[in-house]
Amino acid sequence: QVQLVESGGGLVQTGGSLGLSCKASGRAINVYAMGWFRQAPGKEREFVAAISWTGGYPNYADFAKGRFTMSRDNYKNTVYLQMNSLKTDDTAVYYCAADSSMSVRATYWGKGTQVTVSS
Fold this sequence. Notes:
single chain; mainly beta; seven-stranded mixed sheet; four-stranded antiparallel sheet
């Protein structure tokens, strides 16, 4: 079992930045792919970014490219999502996920952290 706890969400103005963290416990995450997803009110949960268990260059959704940066620190059992140039459309609950391969059907999920971008 892996427990995931997100933090770092909050309220920011358009153009601002936020850094999210996802701390894992229960098992080391160095064998899992890790991902970030988000869900806005009335919308489906959507993929934001993912990184393999080996690290390397993350995969990003088109809307995240050039603005969001995902990284992982296996020693700290933590993954991060740095979000810059935020837009009102980025308002959503952001979730961290872990699995052997990453998709919206990932096995382990955090409870999410709210990100609100105001105009």
